[in-house]
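Study this protein:
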Amino acid sequence: MGFKELFEMQKHLNDRIIQEHGLHNDDLYDQRLLALLVELGELANETRCFKYWSVKPASSDSVILEEYVDGLHFILSVGLDMGMDDIEIHTVASNEDLTGQFLSLYRLISGLQGKKDKTLFSQLFSEFIGLGQLLGFSVENIVDGYYKKNEINHQRQDQGY
């Protein structure tokens, strides 16, 4: 499955943010990588997969999906910064457990700092979709969640977010 439509939607949102916030001359690549790392941490926190000291359960699937697609927005933005406008996923999660998958994603994202490596990005994208599958989401769930959150992000821009 290609993700061309999501890249197009993300480009539209990015262009709007750049226009409305006067960021035409800014290179936002590093900020997007950091934002992606932060969103990934927020997602891990909602899953509670690493909190071996706690018996509190994970957040609801709807909360986890919303955090997940927040990360997808920034992954798409990083891809756009590399000149990508579509991608085919070729692999799934390389780990059987969530903690290992999160750590793999952190390594991949960190590997993109200072270089725009399309092969590494493709691996990151595939592994991120794999994380979604480990979380119990189908690609269709992920795409539907992206559409909904993208609409919310536009509404936030309308309200001066």
In short: The CA atoms of residues 95 and 101 lie 5 Å apart. The radius of gyration is 15 Å. DSSP finds six helices and no strands in the chain. The first helix runs from residue 4 to 20.
